[in-house]
Design goal:
The structure is a single chain. With 274 residues, the protein is of the alpha/beta class. The protein has one domain: Rossmann fold. Helices cover 43% and strands 14% of the residues. The chain is globular and about 50 Å long. It binds nicotinamide-adenine-dinucleotide.
C-alpha cells in the first residue's frame, strides 16, 4: 500500500532532474502524475534545457513504476500554458491533491544579456510558481480534500550563496527567497482548508542544471568560485541526489506530515548551519 494511493500530483519541470525523480517517486507511492515542462531552450540559460524526448522518458518511467501520467509541453511563465496543463490533468484524473512547482533555470553565467537573465530568473522561478499556485488552489479549496503544496526553493532561498556576481544569479537568489513569501502567504490562507504549503531548500543536486559541461568549464576557469568555502556542505558530500528531494516531497505530501505547514524545509547536508 503506497503512502499516496489515490492522490494526484501536478509537477512542473518534470521532464528530467528533480521533477522527473519526483514524478517517479510519487508514482511509486501510488499517486497519478500531471507532468509539465517547457522542453525548449531559454536563450539566457547557458546549459542545454530539457527536450520532448526527456518528457517522454519521464512518462515511460512513471508507467514502469506502475503509475498513470498525463504530460504537457508548456512554459510556466505563460499563465495559459499552466492552466492548460492543469486542466488536462483534471480532465484525466478529476482532481489535484499535491502540487510541486519545481520548474527552474539557473541563468547565472554571464552570456551577454544578463539584464534579461534577471527577468528570466524572476519570471520562471517566482512568477511561474505563482501561476502554478493560482491555477491549482481554487479547485483544491472547492473539492475540500485538503492537500500538499511543496515549492522547490533552494539553499539560495535562505541565504546568499557564493559570489553573486551576475544579475541572473542575483535574480535566482531573489526569486528563491521570493517563493518563501509566497509559501507563507498561501500557508496562512489555506490552513483552514487543510491544504499545507511548504518550501524545500536543496543544496547542490546532481542534475543537468549543475552537472553539465558548460558549468564545469566555468568552474575550472574561475577557481575563486569553485574554492569559495561558502559553497561547501558541512556533511562531506558535494552534490546530493534528486531522490533525496523526492523523499522529502513524498513525506510532506503524506499523512505523516498532516500538521506540517508554513515550513522552510532544508534538504541540504547541513548547508544552512555551515
Ligand atoms: N540542481 C541543483 O543544484 C538545485 C539546487 C537547489 C534548487 N534547485 C531547484 O530545483 C528545481 C529543479 O531543478 P533541477 O536541478 O532538476 O534542474 P533541471 O535543469 O534538470 O530541471 C529543471 C526542469 O525545469 C524545466 N523548466 C525550466 N524552465 C521552465 C519553464 N519556464 N516552464 C516549464 N518548465 C521549465 C526544464 O526544462 C527542466 O526539465 C529548480 O527550481 C532549481 O532551481 C536545483
Amino acid at each position: 500500500m503506497g503512502r499516496l494511493n489515490g492522490k494526484v500530483a501536478f509537477i512542473t519541470g518534470a521532464a528530467r532532474g528533480q521533477g522527473r525523480s519526483h514524478a517517479v517517486r510519487l508514482a511509486e507511492e501510488g499517486a497519478s502524475i500531471i507532468a509539465m515542462d517547457i522542453c525548449a531552450q531559454i536563450p539566457t540559460v547557458f546549459y542545454p534545457m530539457a527536450t520532448p524526448e526527456d518528457l517522454a522518458e519521464t512518462e515511460r518511467l512513471v508507467k514502469e513504476a506502475g503509475g498513470q501520467i498525463v504530460t504537457s509541453i508548456g512554459d510556466v511563465r505563460n499563465y495559459e500554458d499552466v492552466q492548460a496543463a492543469h486542466d488536462l490533468g483534471i480532465e484525466r484524473f478529476g482532481k489535484v491533491d499535491i502540487v510541486v512547482p519545481n520548474a527552474g533555470i539557473m541563468p547565472v553565467i554571464d552570456q551577454g544579456n544578463q539584464r534579461q537573465a534577471w527577468h528570466d530568473a524572476i519570471d520562471v522561478l517566482l512568477t511561474g510558481v505563482w501561476h502554478t499556485l493560482d491555477v491549482s488552489v481554487p479547485g483544491m479549496i472547492e473539492r475540500g480534500n485538503g492537500g500538499s503544496i511543496a515549492i522547490t526553493s533552494s539553499a539560495a532561498g535562505l541565504t546568499s550563496i557564493g559570489l553573486n556576481v551576475f544579475p541572473g544569479q542575483t535574480g535566482y537568489t531573489a526569486a528563491k527567497h521570493g517563493v518563501v513569501g509566497l509559501m507563507r502567504r498561501y500557508a496562512k490562507e489555506l490552513a483552514p482548508h487543510f491544504i499545507r504549503v511548504n518550501t524545500i531548500h536543496p543544496t547542490g543536486v546532481n542534475t543537468p542544471m549543475v552537472a553539465n559541461a558548460e558549468y564545469g568549464a566555468f568552474l575550472q576557469a574561475n577557481p575563486d568560485v569553485m574554492n569559495d568555502e561558502s559553497y561547501k556542505n558541512p556533511m562531506p558530500v558535494e552534490l546530493i541526489e534528486a531522490v533525496d528531494i523526492s523523499n522529502a516531497i513524498v513525506f510532506l505530501a503524506s499523512d505523516e506530515a498532516r500538521y506540517i505547514t508554513g515550513v522552510t524545509f532544508p534538504v541540504d547536508a547541513g548547508y544552512n548551519v555551515r
